[in-house]
Amino acid sequence: MNVRIPSAQQDRLRLVAVLLIVLSACAHFGAVSPDDRLASGTHSAAINGTAIAYHVHGKGPICIVHPGGPGIGWDYLRMPSLEEYLTLVYLEPAGSGASGGLPNAADYTFERYADDIEGLRRYLGISSFYLLGHSHGGMVAQTYAVNHSGNLKGLILFSTTPVTGKEWIDDLSANLGWFANEPWFKEAAPAFMGMGVSKTSEEAAGLFKKAAGFYFADYTANKERIDAAVANMRFNIVPYQTFLSLPFDVRPRLHRIHAPTLIIGAGKDPICSLKFSQQIHDAIPGSHLSDMEKSGHMAHVEQPEELAAVISGFIADVEKRQAGK
User: Less Cβ around it within 10 Å: N or C end of the chain?
Assistant: First the structure.
């Protein structure tokens, strides 16, 4: 039986078909494929309701990098030497750099930062990955690993601590005395202590630059190079001040981490001394501890090639063992 469709209705059907084709093409054009999400360059993703920026550089297995601070721009942690061995996905945490801020200062918790790592993993479409956290980022990485150890091919904890509060502050305060005879000490000490009570982000950034000596093993001998490295340091004081008010002690939970773990300490790091690297090592089953003896808190600046060799060696060992399973 043939049904004759009036010409006016035929025109409407043709228009609907054309619109559907156009809409489909637009949707395809606007979509971001999983491959594009890991293309070299700068990206942004909506993670847990916040725009999170990230930067992809390098080649090899995927490693998400969580910087310290919090509130410091990601680029202080750029590691070109390591990019020869890994595809580094440098995350800009909420409230720093080009990423969006959170509604309330109290929202900048370790759990929230860890949730954003998990959100980024899902956005990138990767089932497992390496995770590298430096300083505060290492605290976030420990939090993530306790909650999501099964997602990690390997964990790299770089110049960090499993605890803050009085124990950490007392150790840090005593360690600043290592530099008491340096020509910059008298100006740097009050600047370091003043960052946490700064009234503006600009003031905190200025104080950080004055206190830069405490982050390096030998600032005096390398002052010009280090000053250039921190000259454009960006800082958001809100996440940093929240961090200083939060209790943190993940030591009772570290035994839950079963991913291969590399802990990198530094013999001349007053911020997160080897004492705390050892505590992490003692608590995580099968972990490996490496000491960057000639570095302070920024071994990626002071010993970049040596640091890359330690991490790449760890990665190669993990990849070999996992391939043999």
Answer: N
Q: Are the C-beta atoms of 161 and 272 separated by less than 8 Å?
A: yes
Closest C-alpha among 147, 141, 129 to residue 66: 141
Assign residue 306 the CATH number of its domain. Answer: 3.40.50.1820
Torsion of CA 143, 147, 151, 157, to 10 degrees: 20
Count of C-beta atoms within a 10 Å radius of residue 62: 19
Our count of domains for the chain comes to: 1
What angle is formed at CA 247 by the lines to CA 242 and CA 251, rounded to 5 degrees?
Answer: 135
Residue 87 is part of which domain span?
A: 41-166+241-323
Whether 229 is covered by a domain: the verdict is: no
pTM of the complete model beyond 0.85: yes
Q: Whose structure tokens read 């990198």?
A: 264
Asked if residue 310 is part of any domain, the answer here is: yes
Contact 198, 207 (CB under 8 A): yes
| pLDDT single digits (tens) 203-255 | 999 999 999 999 999 999 999 988 888 888 888 999 999 999 999 999 999 99
State the Cα–Cα distance between residues 296 and 291, nearest whole angstrom.
11
Rounded CA gap, 30 and 173, in Å? 52
Question: Is 289 buried (19+), middle (13-18) or exposed (0-12) by CB count in 10 A?
Answer: middle
Instruction: Assess contact for 271 and 172: CB atoms under 8 A.
Output: yes
Query: What pLDDT, in 10s, does the model give residues 26-42?
Result: 333 445 666 799 999 99
The secondary structure element, H or E, covering residue 119 is helix 110-124
Residue 234 included in any domain: no
* Domain assignment present for 15: no
User: For 90-103, b where at least 16 C-beta lie within 10 A, e where not — what string?
Assistant: bbbbbbbbebebbe
